[in-house]
Design a protein that fits this description.
Blueprint (H helix, E strand, L loop, with lengths): L5 H19 L16 H5 L22 H5 L11
Length: 83
């Protein structure tokens, strides 16, 4: 049997699992495609703040409350929340 201890085996298993996930699901910035983060710092600084008025459902600009399309075609869900 090998001289590997349980903590060493656990650490190696975690590293292998992390490497496999990175290989299968690489993290790329949705803005520029750069590898490393879902949204890189450069792209975060370029994001515009959504200012009112906008549709409460689809965020279409220059609409108070809900836009005509959202009023006619209700969403299948009641609410969508984000942090």
């Amino acid at each position: 049997m090998s001289n590997m201890t349980l903590p060493t085996i656990q650490t190696t298993a975690r590293r292998l699992a992390r490497s496999a996930l990175e290989l299968l699901f690489p993290v790329h910035c949705v803005g520029c495609g750069r590898e490393g983060q879902v949204i890189c710092a450069s792209c975060v600084t370029g994001l515009k703040v959504l200012e009112r008025p906008f549709c409460d459902t689809c965020a279409r600009p220059n609409v108070n409350g809900q836009c005509h399309d959202c009023l006619e075609h209700a969403l299948a869900s009641d609410d969508v929340l984000s942090p």
